[in-house]
Specification:
By secondary structure, this protein is of the alpha/beta class. Helices cover 18% and strands 28% of the residues. It has five helices and 14 strands. The strands form two sheets. It has a seven-stranded mixed sheet with strand order 6-5-4-3-2-1-14, with helices on one face. The protein has a seven-stranded mixed sheet with strand order 7-8-9-10-11-12-13, covered by helices on one side. This is UPF0173 metal-dependent hydrolase IRJ16_03850. Residues 7-188 form the Metallo-beta-lactamase domain. InterPro entries: Metallo-B-lactamas, RibonucZ/Hydroxyglut_hydro, UPF0173, UPF0173_UPF0282_UlaG_hydrolase.
């Protein structure tokens, strides 16, 4: 299972011969200027919520790839009005796809689509594939709901660490104690001035907490 980072909260997971792209925001992110959006051909696009820094390239990538979008029901309805195929879900629900299973879990944030339409509830996802369990928290604050993931025995957690709009480093570390995961990939940082972090300090804090933190450079891949 391969993870490739495209900046902010955008990344791709390749599993079971399928490509899953999460929260496409590349064109408008100066840090991702070397990523060619036209080269992305995912089979699925998973959207955690409706903010622009998570859906800015959604239409472009979906139209060039024909990918099925997996998202909250309200975003699925919004996409349907634009003749884009989407699989709507809601918090607590799961569904079996051809690559594995996806469960939608709670995130504490807000969600409005770029045109002002309501984006429903923000969400995170747990992906079950290749015998592994990968948690993407989406944009979220630290929340006791994360304790519900403890029984999942997660292999990896993909967590926002930029602070201001989401959890910062300290709360992200605390969250790993809620669901007992020692492998973390940090996302949602450095793209805007208010979420710039000290990466060396973040790595040091995670290490001292006994947690492996990966901060891949944009365009880099790692095996999960």
């Amino acid at each position: 299972m391969k993870f490739t980072y495209y900046g902010q909260s955008c990344f791709e997971i390749e599993t079971g011969g399928k490509k899953l792209l999460f929260d496409p925001f590349i064109t408008y992110n100066p840090l991702a200027k070397d990523i060619d959006v036209s080269s992305l051909k995912p089979d699925y696009i998973l959207v955690s919520h409706g903010h622009g820094d998570h859906v800015a390239d959604l239409m472009t990538v979906q139209k060039q790839s024909g990918a099925k979008v997996i998202c909250i029901a309200e975003i699925a309805d919004w996409l349907g009005k634009q003749e884009i195929e989407a699989h709507g879900m809601n918090i607590g629900g799961g569904f079996n796809f051809d690559f594995g299973r996806v469960k939608m879990v709670n995130a504490v944030h807000s969600s409005t689509l770029p045109d002002g339409s309501p984006g429903g509830s923000p969400a995170g996802f747990v992906v079950y594939a290749e015998g592994k369990k990968i948690y993407f928290a989406g944009d979220t604050a630290l929340t006791y709901d994360m304790k519900l993931l403890a029984d999942e025995k997660l292999d990896w957690a993909i967590l926002p660490i930029g602070d201001n709009y989401t959890m910062g480093v300290d709360d992200a570390i605390k969250s790993t104690g809620f669901f007992d995961c020692k492998n973390v990939i940090g996302v949602h940082y450095d793209s805007f001035p208010v979420i710039v972090i000290d990466k060396e300090e973040a790595l040091d804090k995670f290490t001292k907490a006994g947690i492996k933190l990966e901060l891949p450079v944009i365009g880099a891949s790692l095996e999960l």
